[in-house]
């Protein structure tokens, strides 16, 4: 899981990422790697705090780009928002689940994974047509995704396709 985005695009909130970690620990026997770049230590530490260290590993600032690509290529799944690691996963053929703002200029049509567009998730919003990232009328459009929607997308849809 790569929870950082450099504030370049809308992102899930801390509680949404924690829900996803909890679901992965309940539904799989996987180890969850929390990746990030230097400077994202606080976010990753907060996400990992409530989970067992043997199942949730913090790897912030640990990998070069080439090493991160190898980690992603060998992963069972990458979960992130609109970030560079999402494109690395798509290029490597690694299953992914990406979260995107549905408004311009952040749409998954423009910035999503070309080969896995069906796994670029956006909340259903009536407006705006143009993203107002700093002044989002929704308080962060991705906050509009409910726990039930995230659970359905991850557990009933995405994990099911990986474990065929």
Explain what this protein looks like in three dimensions.
This protein has 164 residues and is an alpha/beta fold. The chain is 37% helix and 12% strand. The protein contains six helices and five strands, in the order H-E-H-E-H-E-H-E-H-E-H. The chain has helices at 14-27, 41-48, 65-73, 84-92, 108-111, 147-162, and strands at residues 32-36, 56-60, 78-81, 96-99, 120-121. A three-stranded parallel sheet has the order 3-4-5, with helices on both faces. Strands 1-2 form a two-stranded parallel ribbon. The radius of gyration is 15 Å and the shape is globular. The mean pLDDT is 86.
Short description:
The protein has one domain (14-162): 3-Layer(aba) Sandwich (Rossmann fold), CATH 3.40.50.2000. Helices cover 37% and strands 12% of the residues.
| CATH top-level class | Alpha Beta
Please give the domain count.
1
Output the strand order for the largest sheet: 3-4-5
The gross shape turns out to be globular
How helix-rich are the residues, as a percent range?
25-40%
Oligomer kind: single chain
């Amino acid at each position: 899981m790569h929870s950082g985005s450099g504030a370049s695009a809308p992102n899930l909130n801390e509680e949404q990422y924690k829900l996803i970690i909890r679901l992965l620990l309940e539904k799989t026997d996987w180890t969850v790697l929390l990746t990030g770049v230097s400077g994202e230590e606080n976010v990753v530490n907060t996400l990992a705090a409530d989970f067992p260290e043997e199942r949730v590993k913090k790897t912030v600032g640990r990998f070069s780009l080439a090493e991160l690509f190898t980690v992603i290529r060998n992963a069972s799944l990458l979960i992130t928002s609109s970030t560079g690691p999402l494109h690395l996963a798509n290029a490597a053929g690694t299953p992914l689940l990406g979260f995107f703002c549905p408004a311009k200029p952040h749409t998954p049509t423009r910035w999503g994974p070309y080969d896995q567009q069906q796994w670029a998730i956006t909340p259903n919003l009536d407006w705006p047509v143009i993203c107002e990232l700093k002044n989002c009328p929704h308080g962060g459009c991705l906050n509009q995704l409910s726990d039930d929607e995230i659970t359905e997308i991850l557990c009933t849809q995405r994990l099911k396709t990986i474990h065929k």
